Amino acid sequence: MGPRIRSRKNAIIQLNLMVVGMTGLGKTSFIRTFCETLVTRKIEQKQIPALQGPVGKTIDSYSMTFDIEEEGEKIALTIVDTPGLTDDFNLDKQLYEVLHYLEYQFDITLAEESKVKRNPKALDNQIHACLYFIDPSKKGLTLSDIRVLKKLTTRVNVIPVVAKADQLTISQRNSIKKAIFHDIFEQHKIRIYGFPEDDSDPSSTSAAAKDESDSDDDLVGRPRTSGTDATRPRTSGTDATRPRTSGTDYTNADADSDDEDAASDMDDITVLRKIMPFSVISYEEDPEGLPVEIVDPATGERLKGRQYPWGIVDVLDPNHCDFATLRGVLLTTHRKIFKDITFEKYYEQYRTEKLLARKASRLMREDVKKKILDDLRDL
Ligand SMILES: Nc1nc2c(ncn2[C@@H]2O[C@H](COP(=O)(O)OP(=O)(O)OP(=O)(O)O)[C@@H](O)[C@H]2O)c(=O)[nH]1
């Protein structure tokens, strides 16, 4: 194995996720549950204030970074929690703040790329995927959800999730998923992750991943890995999404042809579309904010979940919700595509807009200058 491959294998992959949604839908609780499933390389990193004590209302956005290991790969995972949105006159301002955060990360990349001497160790701050929490008590998307989703999808890969799915019966869950799918895809044609603008274009989410040619781990997020490696979607099945720690060498896993990759990506995206929006449940906390101890009476195993008079919810059980599938999609199967699309589509679009705006303002200034000179001449 050459030194280059070795360095790729040991490289730390950056992955940045964000949660957004109306207030009280369980965003912070989801992050806490998600963090409990991580295999952290530095345990003390779990001592993050936001993860301690009883869960409370999020007032300001904050982020936390973990060095984790997932399927043998080292990932620097950053999760950004945002204050809950409110369905009132404040919504536009709150949404502006979220968009500003996303754009600011693009500005950092833009500034780095404009340098004559770039920092090869510059971090990739861009948000690669944003989970949008949807109220399970509604019959589908609200007008505010639609407004927020339309804006968010101009800047980031958005993955809709139905919050607090333990509050839904199976038939309610199926019908809310169907209604949300209809609202997003058919009614409003909102371009969430996995839904191409033109549905006859099979490649809109996979092409970006397919065309790249180097590592996805460095250099202000410019993805350079072939779309054929570990991060190419391999499955959306439930087992694959359970935390696994085998040290598979993905750097050698790209023997397939590009066509096969594209076909496989499409298969997985088709499967993903059938699951989306993901239903999630977070574990129950005691008054100190610690996970309630729950023991599965059938197996005697301890699990993270919620206990009801009629039974137990295991957040990682695919029969109970899609938490484990979503976890696998984020950390493993679709991670590379999220990163590629973020850079190839969202960043490039932002960059183009910025450059056009600069050019326009320059032209405008020239115009104004010329007019002033003309006016002076006429005096
Ligand atoms: N039944 C149920 N309750 C949940 C679930 N997740 C969170 N909760 C509860 O919902 C309440 C709000 O949870 P948070 O995690 O603070 O919600 P949030 O979206 O971060 O709230 P904001 O900070 O206001 O945006 C808490 O009482 C949680 O215990 C869930 O999956 N099921």
Automatic annotation (TrEMBL):
GO cellular component: cell cortex; septin cytoskeleton
Keywords of this entry: GTP-binding, Nucleotide-binding
InterPro entries cross-referenced by the UniProt entry: G_SEPTIN_dom (IPR030379), P-loop_NTPase (IPR027417), Septin (IPR016491)
Residue segments, region Disordered: 195-264
Record carries keyword Cell inner membrane: no
Residue spans crossing the bilayer: none
Biased composition (Acidic residues): 255-264
Pfam families associated with the record: Septin (PF00735)
Compositional bias segments (type: Polar residues): 225-251
Keyword Nucleotide-binding: yes
Domain of life, source organism: Eukaryota
GO terms of molecular function: GTP binding
Occurrences of domain Septin-type G (ranges): 11-357
Gene3D superfamilies: P-loop containing nucleotide triphosphate hydrolases
Family annotation (PANTHER family): SEPTIN
Similarity section: Belongs to the TRAFAC class TrmE-Era-EngA-EngB-Septin-like GTPase superfamily. Septin GTPase family.
Name this protein carries in UniProt: Septin-domain-containing protein
